[in-house]
Specification:
Largest sheet: 5 strands, antiparallel
Radius of gyration: 42 Å
Strand order of the largest sheet: 6-5-4-1-7
Order of helices and strands: HHEEEEEEEEEEEEEEHEHE
CATH superfamily of one domain: L,D-transpeptidase catalytic domain-like
Length: 333
């Protein structure tokens, strides 16, 4: 009896020990799980704190007054022109009718399709170019007449009659009619008085560019395209000049007389050909910076087109320009 009792007791103790071991193992498992959960919560909290205190990056947004990259490329400032400030049009811009003749104050002034630097560039005007103003915009721009179409210029680059150019003349070249009209100033200082008309030859196939420019360099003789020479050359822009009808050599007695007989019609490679008399007049009387506008028009000009001189190609004097004032000119003897 005692023997069985002792055996039963050992079995009960072993059973209790097994249960205790199992309970201990279960507790360890629970502790591990709880520790993992706490670790996850701690990591998540740390990440949340980092995100909370980290300053977000702000994308760069250019201000309204900063020109876009394309504007900087197409309208780089010259020495006399700062970049135009972009106009933010929050509503419709009102335009009041306004009539005046004004002048560009910058070397190259962009004419735009609307009163904003975001609009299309229609063309350019040179310094001291007379500009017909037809309206004043509420945002600091002027509406102008640009070669027969409506354009807009910033008022920052225009000046009125009180600040007129000191240049005595303004030259207009009508490509369609091959005529040059020189204007002088009226009593108010505007270039409105037709002064002199010249017959010319512009470029074939529209090779002479239209637009407004200012004269620069001058040459008594100038090597031209085609390895020929011109007398009394005045640069308009780039490689385009006013000059005499070409000479085969740098010799006044070596005129290309057949080309001289084309005065009054398109004949050049792009320059504006004149008689020696007219080329010399521009050379002598129109200083550097004289405004020049080249355009197309079939409308009558204020002065009649001079009748071009024609040289008899059988005349021994044909190698001289009949208008050349040189005392050696046989046409003057």
């Amino acid at each position: 009896m005692n023997q069985y009792s002792q055996e039963d007791k050992r079995r009960r103790q072993m059973k209790l020990s097994g249960k205790a071991a199992a309970a201990s193992k279960e507790k360890r498992t629970i502790l591990i799980i709880v520790s993992c959960i706490l670790a996850i919560i701690l990591i998540a909290g740390t990440i949340a704190l980092v995100k909370h205190f980290k300053k977000p990056e702000t994308p760069f947004v250019p201000s309204q007054s900063e020109p876009a990259a394309s504007e900087q490329q197409t309208e780089a400032p010259t020495q006399t022109q700062a970049p135009e400030t972009t106009t933010s049009l929050s509503g419709d811009v009102t335009v009041t009718d306004y009539s005046a003749t004004m002048y560009s104050t910058t070397v190259t002034l962009n004419v735009r399709s609307a009163p904003s630097t975001d609009s299309q560039i229609l063309g350019q005007l040179g310094q001291d170019t007379p500009i017909k103003v037809t309206g004043k915009c509420s945002n600091g721009w002027f509406r102008i007449d640009f070669n027969g179409q409506t354009g807009y210029c910033s008022e920052k680059y225009l000046k009125g009659s009180q600040d007129l150019s000191d240049k005595p003349y303004y030259i207009k070249v009508n490509r369609t009619q091959n005529i040059v009209i020189v204007y002088t100033k009226d009593a108010n200082g505007g270039y409105t008085v037709p002064y002199k008309a010249m017959v010319c030859s512009v470029g074939l196939n529209d090779a002479t560019p239209t637009g407004s420019y200012n004269t620069t360099d001058k040459y008594t003789w100038r090597l031209l395209s085609g390895n020929v020479y011109g007398q009394y050359a005045t640069r308009i822009t780039g490689h385009y000049l006013f000059h005499s009808v070409p000479y085969v050599t740098q010799n006044k007695a070596d005129l290309e007389y057949e080309e001289f007989n084309k005065l009054g019609e398109a004949a050049s490679l792009g320059c504006i050909r004149l008689s020696v008399e007219d080329a010399k007049w521009i050379y002598d009387n129109c200083p550097k910076g004289t405004p020049v506008t080249i355009y197309d028009s079939n409308d009558p000009e204020p002065l009649a087109k001079p009748t071009p001189i024609r040289i008899d190609t059988n005349d021994s004097r044909r190698v001289w320009d009949p208008t050349d004032p040189d005392p050696s000119n046989p046409w003057r003897q």
